[in-house]
Specification:
heterodimer, A: 517 residues, ABC transporter involved in vitamin B12 uptake, BtuC, 2 domains, two-stranded antiparallel ribbon, 21 helices, B: 368 residues, disordered N terminus
């Protein structure tokens, strides 16, 4: 029994050790220290954070290693030993990894060998910090002791909290009472009361009207971006969340919308100077048609071909936009400037605040439409196809037509987002439509809750809003997205706010995204 | 919505097949006309240029074929596009690059040249080492990818697997960028594999350079493909792989350890991708975190073109795609910037005209 605890501790320690080494090699240790500093409200973003925060960061990592390793089912008599052994060995092994890497790079540094030729993220400052400003030997010893200690302490603490009846029952009581008060009749009466709903709607509308005026340009820009990504997420959700067909190159439709709009309204290269609203309609239409054309040959085939074909389509569009061949028609790599803003009765609205309002209105309209679609006959047909296409066909659903409709609606929404994006920036170029955009959208839909409209709002705020606040993590954003996708698919494939379906469809709970492989 | 009677469904399928054939003929005639126009009527390029293009296409095609085999093997067994496969190849390319860099720093002075380093003193050992390192890194990457990311999702829907694969791809790409920096790295070859050196052949009065690195890559990739074919057709492991691809459940009833076979499939496909990656570094000379992305997607195109699940198909598709990509821009008379567009257009065209690929797909009749 004891050996199994040590075994688990060792294995966890190796995993955490590799993670720490990787974090050091990509320079994340400094960033992590900066983030800790930010939590304490001390650190400015762009200087080396003090040692204290780095120590706290490493203690947190060590504690995590200890908690992960500490045994879960607490039945045996000698569990105190088990918990301490597991936590201690896990912390010690990860500490050993960190100590070795710290010592190696410390020696390199003191011999004046710069590792940055091959590992550009390992700066002398980060090495110095990793060794607590000590000599390599003492620094790595300190590191080892710190990690072992924090692993032990965290394992002991988590063991105590889990095993201590008083703490557990009081925690449970507290959470239960909160739940009860939320679920109690009085509260639900208040929520379901007509007047309360009107009042809250009014308050919500008032907030939406007042906030953009008080935010200032920067936050309007950030939340405008969030709004555009909400629209994109709602659009992708139609084809991926409801109809169950993954589209990787979603940015292609975004680009079609943006470029159609830009070419129709900008003075160069064609000088068409069309009215904003007409061009908006045409941009959305062009995107919808492109979705239709892409879907026609592909949607009858195996599902994953759609993913890769749209990816190819997105790359084709980006390369074409950049190429010399299309430069006379689409302004090439320079992009299109001076794209028109919205006008109402001849008066133009192009300030930040006006645009924020426009985006809010667009988000509301798309949300409303998506909500209606979800519960419509078509929405149910999509859901049926998602669950099992063969059965859906047998019940008389024209799967091909439904999927085609879903794809072109999706594309139309992306076109709308593209129009808003181009118009707000008054500029659009090929690099605005890199594959990154699609990956962002896929991530936000999946993290928030695939197939669920509130989930998409949450995802957009979390994935586009948070990184603006946590600016230090900018370089690591994509890396974190990758990890997030893998972890979410393994632990919570339905997202943080899972979609709810009526009781009748409970049978599919095991299988939220579609049919069996 | 049409009535769900069997006749109307069959009629629609037949109509669809006619439409696909018709579209194929129209596109084919148009392309032939265009090629005829450019090659015969305009005659912008002499025969030497075409030989040069064809050769570089074959060399590129060999690498595509190696990567495409990995896609096809995995797709045949798990019905999943291993989106991170290109990144596995990129890791192999970095393995080769770092081996060369390390060997360059080991001094190996000879009498005639006291400043000689190991890389040039023992070029054959160096290249062998580079391939060993690159292949083992990629094989390990493939193994761990399957073990960490895909194995827990064995029973999950395919969309979940695909999203996981995309996540793995993003992760590996950005990890490499953060570790090694975003700039492109020059791969310094041993002197005997100098990229400018090669045999010079006279074609219609002009000299054509057949580079050593190119011939080296082509020969090596051919050998590896033959080796893989023997492995799949003649060995016990190969038979187990084919059995699992045909029907997982029956195979496991017959005593095949399915998990083990899937693991080994990922190791083999990773190893081939790693070899392709090292070749890429030696022949193309530039490596960065983005190296694997485009070749990966193109190799998938090649696998679809040859018929997914079909190993000879992947080889044929890879070679064909390489040649088309090299010759295409010149033959169609378009800009060389657009060669990536050609590869992607081929994917769309294949799916429109013949979705099952040239040699036909080989997949089990399991639920698709």
């Amino acid at each position: 029994m004891r050996s199994s605890a040590v075994d688990k501790g060792l294995r966890t320690g190796v995993v955490f050790g590799i993670v720490i080494v990787t974090m050091f090699l990509i320079g994340f240790t400094v960033t992590g220290a900066g983030l800790v500093g930010k939590i304490f409200g001390v650190q400015s973003s762009y200087s080396t954070p003090p040692l204290v925060f780095f120590s706290i960061f490493m203690i947190l990592v060590g504690a995590w290693a200890g908690v992960t390793a500490s045994p879960r089912p607490l039945l045996e008599a000698d569990t105190w030993n088990r918990a301490l052994l597991a936590g201690g060995s896990s912390g010690a092994v990860s500490g050993l990894f960190s100590a070795i890497i710290g010592f190696l790079f410390g020696e390199l540094n003191s011999n004046r060998i710069d590792p940055r030729t091959y590992l550009p993220s390992v700066s002398p400052e980060s090495i110095k910090m990793f060794l607590f400003d000590q000599t390599p030997f003492i620094g790595s010893l300190l590191m080892f002791a710190l990690m072992t200690g924090s692993g032990l302490a965290a394992a002991a603490l988590s063991f105590y909290l889990r095993n201590n009846g008083a703490v557990r029952s009081s925690l449970r009581k507290a959470s239960e009472s909160v739940w009860d008060s939320i679920r109690s009749e009085r509260v639900s009466n208040i929520i379901q009361n007509k007047y309360t709903r009107y009042a809250s709607l009014l308050a919500f509308a008032a907030i939406l009207i007042i906030l953009p005026r008080t935010w200032g340009g920067y936050w309007n820009y950030v939340f405008g971006t969030v709004g555009i990504y909400i629209i994109l997420g709602l659009g992708l959700n139609i084809i991926t969340g409801w109809a169950g067909q993954l589209v990787i190159g979603y940015v292609a439709f975004f680009a079609v919308g943006a470029y159609t709009f830009a070419l129709l309204t900008a003075p160069e290269p064609h000088h068409l100077m069309m009215n904003f609203w007409v061009a908006l309609g045409l941009g959305v239409l062009a995107a919808a048609i492109s979705g239709l054309l892409i879907g026609l040959p592909i949607l009858n085939l195996r599902g994953d071909y759609l993913a890769i074909v749209t990816l190819g389509f997105a790359e084709i569009i980006r390369i074409l936009l950049k190429s010399d061949l299309m430069t006379p028609y689409t302004a090439g790599p320079r992009g299109i400037r001076d794209i028109a803003g919205p006008t109402i009765l001849g008066k133009s609205f192009i300030s930040d605040v006006d645009f924020m309002y426009l985006i809010i209105i667009a988000v509301l309209v798309v949300t409303f439409l998506a909500n209606r679609l979800q519960n419509s006959r078509t929405g149910k047909a999509w859901y049926a196809i998602n669950l099992d296409e063969t059965v859906a066909r047998a019940t008389g659903i024209n799967a091909f037509a439904s999927k085609l409709l879903a794809l072109s609606l999706s594309a139309a929404v992306a076109g709308l987002a593209g129009v808003l994006f181009a118009s707000r920036n008054q500029f659009t170029g090929p690099d605005d439509h890199a594959l990154m955009v699609s990956i962002n959208v896929i991530c936000l839909v999946i993290v928030g809750g695939i197939g669920n409209i509130p989930g998409i709002f949450l995802g957009a705020f979390a994935l586009k809003g948070l990184p603006e606040i946590l600016r230090e993590t900018e370089n690591y954003r994509l890396l974190i997205f990758g990890v997030l996708l893998i972890v979410m698919m393994r632990l919570r494939p339905e997202g943080f706010l899972p979609a709810k379906r009526p009781e009748l469809e409970k049978a599919s709970v095991q299988n939220p995204l579609g049919k069996e492989a | 919505m049409d009535k769900p009677t069997s006749t109307s469904t069959q009629g629609r399928l037949r109509l669809e097949r006619y439409l696909r054939t018709f579209a194929g003929i129209v596109i084919g005639v148009f392309l032939l006309w265009r090629v005829y126009n450019v090659i015969v009527l305009q005659q912008n390029f002499g025969a030497d240029t075409w030989v040069r293009f064809g050769l570089s296409g074959l060399i590129l095609g060999g690498m595509y074929a190696l990567i495409a085999i990995g896609y096809t093997l995995v797709y045949g067994i798990m019905f999943m596009i291993n989106f991170a496969h290109g990144e596995v190849m990129m890791l192999g390319a970095f393995g080769g690059f770092f081996t060369f860099e390390a060997l360059r720093f080991i001094p190996a002075p000879t009498l005639s040249n006291p400043e000689y380093n190991f890389l040039n003193a023992h070029p054959f050992i160096s290249v062998l080492l580079a391939f060993l390192v690159g292949i083992s890194i990629s094989a390990m990457a493939g193994y761990f990818l399957e073990k960490i990311a895909y194995r827990p999702l064995r029973r999950a829907p395919r969309l979940i697997l695909l999203i996981t694969a995309i996540g793995a791809s993003i992760f590996l790409q950005n990890l490499a960028m953060l570790l090694f920096g975003p700039q492109r790295k020059n791969v310094v070859n041993p002197d005997i594999l100098d990229r400018g050196a090669g045999w010079i052949v006279n074609v219609s009065g002009n000299d054509v350079l057949i580079s050593y690195t190119g011939i080296f890559s082509l020969v090596l990739s051919t050998l590896l493909m033959i080796g893989l074919y023997i492995l799949v057709q003649r060995t016990k492991l190969g038979r187990a792989m084919r059995a699992v691809a045909l029907d997982k459940n029956t195979a496991s009833l017959m005593g095949v350890d399915v998990d083990n076979v899937i693991s080994k499939t990922f190791i083999i496909s990773g190893a081939l991708a790693g070899a392709a990656g090292v070749m890429w570094g030696i022949h193309m000379g530039l490596v960065n975190h983005y190296t694997g992305f485009l070749p990966g997607i193109k190799a998938f195109t090649a696998a679809v073109m040859g018929g997914i699940g079909n190993i000879p198909g992947a080889m044929l598709g890879g070679m064909l795609l390489g040649v088309i990509e090299a010759i295409g821009p010149a033959a169609l008379g378009i800009d060389f910037q657009l060669k990536d567009v050609i590869a992607f257009s081929i994917l769309v065209l294949v799916l429109i005209v013949r979705p099952s690929g040239i040699l036909g797909e080989k997949l089990s009749e399991e639920k698709l």
